[in-house]
Amino acid sequence: MEMTEQFEKTARDIEERIRPQIEDAKKKVLDLNSQAVSYIKENPGKCLLGAIAAGYIIGRIARR
Amino acid sequence: MASSESGAPNGQRVESTSAGAGALTVGQRVDRASDTAQEAWSRTRDTVSDLKDRLDIEGRVERNPYGMMAAALGVGYVLGGGLFSPLTARLVGFGMRMGLRLAAIPFLENELRGLTESVMNGAGESDESSEGGERKSHRRGTNKGGKGL
After folding, report:
1. Which terminus, N or C, of chain A has the lesser number of Cβ atoms within 10 Å?
2. Per-10-residue mean pLDDT for chain B, 149 residues long?
3. What pTM does this model have?
């Protein structure tokens, strides 16, 4: 019983320690996503041309 | 065709043809050429704007930015000649395998469920039949006992 309680306590501690970090990482990823989407929406031509260029380079590399 | 040129009073050179199709100054020719060029330019602009409206690239990017980026990447990949490459073959093979697995999982799940249910039903029926047999034998036993009495 003591062993189980100790194990539960350790798991709870780890969860409490990790949860804020996960929340922070989630927030950062969401911010990055919204920034990327807004940038693409503001500069559609530039982004499309860049994507085509990137695809072209990848295709050239893959052809070798 | 023979043609002769003569100086005009305003400094423009007049070019006349021997056929007599009408004398045109160089300025008039330039005007006509510029008109034609302007017309062609306006037509091209109209065509481009019409194409833009029809394709609605900005609207599409607004609605689905990541999808459009992926499509542009794919177009570039094809233009770069990566379509018939080992990497494409590997990617297509991986995609096919994943797709087949994902399609097969629900089918297998249903089959397994059906099999399990049939096995469980079969076991239940055999239990019931064995219980019934025991009851029958018990009854027979009692009957025998009754007859004996």
Report:
1. N
2. 46 48 81 95 94 88 94 95 92 94 91 90 69 52 44
3. 0.56
- What is the C-alpha to C-alpha distance for residues B29 and B94, in angstroms, rounded to an integer? 65
Contact assignment for A40 to B61 by CB distance below 8 Å: yes
Chain pair A-B, CB pairs under 8 angstroms: 85
A25 touches B: beta carbon within 8 Å: no
Q: Give the gap in angstroms from C-alpha B39 to the nearest C-alpha of chain A.
A: 27
Structure token digits, residue B101: 């697995």
Residues 6+ apart with CB under 8 A from A62: B77, B80, B82, B85, B86, B87, B88
Inter-axis angle of helices B65-79 and A2-42, to 10 degrees? 70
For residue A52, the chain B residues in CB contact (below 8 A) are 72-73, 75-76, 79
ipTM of the complex: 0.77
Contact A48, B68 (CB under 8 A): yes
Listed in sequence order, the residues at least 6 apart from A52 whose beta carbon sits closer than 8 Å to its beta carbon are B72, B73, B75, B76, B79
